[in-house]
Amino acid sequence: MCKNLRIKGQSVKLKQGTCMVNLRGVRMKILVVDDGQLAINSLIRILCRVAPDCDYISAMTTEDALSWMRQGPMDAAFLNLEMPGMNGLALTRMIQKLQPRCNIIVVTEHPGIWKRCRSS
C-alpha cells in the first residue's frame, strides 16, 4: 500500500512499502489529474500496487495540476484526456514546457476519442 497519499492538499499516512527513488535519489512524485474523485482514487489504488512507496498527488482541475507542476519536479503525471476547460493534450503541452523530464501518461475511458484528438 502507499506510504503517503495526498488528496486535496492533505497528506494521509498509509502502510509502508519498499522505497522507489528517482535519479535524484528522492522518493518519486506522481501527479494524478482527473475531474472525478472516484477515478483519481481508483487510479491511485492501482498505482499503489505497482509503486507502493511513491508520493501521489491528486488534482481535479488543470489549473491545480499546473500549480503542482510549478511547485517542484514531478517524475510522472497521469492525465485524463477529457477535462472541463483545458483537455489532457493541451495540459500535456503545458507540462512539457514546465517540466520536460516529467513522464506523461494520458488516459481516457472513451476509446474513440483518441483518434479525434490526435488529428486536431
Task: Give an overview of the whole structure.
The chain is α/β, with parallel strands linked by helices and 120 residues long. The chain is built from 4 helices and 6 strands, in the order E-E-E-H-E-H-E-H-E-H. The chain has a 6-stranded mixed sheet, sandwiched between helices. Strand 3 (29-33), helix 1 (37-50) and strand 4 (55-59) form a beta-alpha-beta unit. Helix 2 runs parallel beside helix 3 (88-98). The chain is globular, with a radius of gyration of 14 Å. Mean pLDDT is 78; it is low at 6-19.
Distance between the termini: 39 Å
Number of DSSP strand runs: 6
State Rg. Answer: 14 Å
What is the arithmetic mean of pLDDT?
78
Q: Give helix % range.
A: 25-40%
Report low-confidence residues grouped into runs of 5 or more: 6-19
The biggest sheet, with number of strands, parallel, antiparallel or mixed sense and barrel status, is: 6 strands, mixed
Short description:
The chain is α/β, with parallel strands linked by helices and 120 residues long. It has 4 helices and 6 strands; from the N terminus they run βββαβαβαβα.
